[in-house]
Amino acid sequence: MTWPRGADERGTVTARPPSDPLIRLRDVTHRTLLVETTAASDANEVYERLRLQWGSVAPVDLEPGVPAWLVLGHDEAVGVLRDDRTFIKDPSIWHGHAENLLGPQSALHLVLPRAPKPTLADADGAKHARMRPPVDDALSQVDEARAAAITRRLCGMLIDRFEDRGRADLVAEYAAVVPFLALSELDGLEPGQAQRLQEITRAIFESGAAARERTVELLEIVTEHIAHSRRLGTRDIAGVLAVHDNFESDLERAQTLTAITLAANEALLAWIAQTLALVLSDPRFSNRVSGGRLHIDDALDEVLWRSTTNPNLMPRFATREVVIGDKLIERGAAVVVGVHAANHDPLVQSADPWDTVGNRAYLSFGAGPHRCPAPRLGRVIARIAVAELLQRLQVTLVGDPDKVEWATSPWMRFPARLPVTFPPPVSPPAPGAWPPGPAEFAH
Known about the structure:
Blueprint: E1 23-24, E2 32-33, H1 35-39, H2 43-54, E3 57-63, E4 66-71, H3 74-82, E5 87-88, H4 95-98, H5 125-140, H6 144-163, E6 167-169, H7 171-175, H8 178-186, H9 191-206, H10 211-232, H11 237-243, H12 250-281, H13 283-290, H14 296-306, E7 316-318, E8 322-324, E9 327-329, E10 334-337, H15 339-343, H16 375-392, E11 396-397, E12 419-421, H17 438-442
Parallel strand pairs: 1-9, 2-3, 4-10
Antiparallel strand pairs: 3-4, 5-7, 6-12, 7-10, 8-9, 11-12
Helix pairs in contact: 5-11, 6-8, 6-16, 8-9, 8-12, 9-10, 10-11, 10-12, 12-13, 12-14, 12-16
Keywords: Heme, Iron, Metal-binding, Monooxygenase, Oxidoreductase
Organism: Promicromonospora vindobonensis
Region (Disordered): 1-20
């Protein structure tokens, strides 16, 4: 079967004559590991190498021996994201289950479960149409001014913790903490609950296959919070989800609240950390920001264009055979949309870097039914987190900027650590010391 989208004039997704050979995933023996695209010092080099070798769709391994298709072309990526009947989020149809491709210690068990979780992120069709409105309703009622005030307060609190020290890791001590605490407060969680959830979440991502055991405690906390919010009649995110009739159970509500919070946290962590890394490692960028010639929003946009926080989206699965270029996407195949590669597709990317300033035509917030539900709220949190740190501290990156170590997640791209130093705060003068205060000038 073919997948016509009327794009023949650009050579993107086309029907091919039956006589032309089609490339099948099973026939490719040497595949690039997906994590190479995110952990490389130059992600563009890896994506472009794949594009030159394979065209708009390339074979990759999610883990050694776990194959998937990686979509590199912009038009092809948009087509996959919008076609939620051909490419679905339900992993139960993935052919790898029948072939037992995942070993007992595989970290992909959470990404490729045998059955979909009852959450918006993994829903398709009518189920997704039922579960998306509650999330949109809950996020649309968030007061952006309140979200900004919460974020600013939390940023100040975190900076207070390391300001006197004169050094910090801006990933572990700042970028990884600000969004989680801000989102948790907007969810209506108490500080103690938020801290415990962050500890569990970190353990889940670090424990691979054993993570399923830790999700039990996480769901218990969130489910109880949903019920508590309903009893109190709160109007925070959890309170809106708690009373929305579109959900069939509190399990759906808890799973959805957890999923949107964790997904937003990961994306914001990467967005904040990458922006700070770019400002600290690129003098031209830093000078433009500090000199007022480039607004923080423009800096955030340049990160989404230039590097992308979520370079590879979680897999979708083909419900039928389709052809993209010379690749045969078989039913049950995992298909990963390479957002970074799509943003850098030569067919849509200008050679002039200034064309990206103020241009938000990137795919970093997704497209189609699963598009990010709260890009404005995310921007508020990221903007304040970056601005507060840059305005308050004169930070200098420790080490060679060209040797920043990137996290080994195949889905997100951010520095594994960002060690910086900065001058400690100047102690206030003792009473009576120079310079004189306003009262002394009055005399």
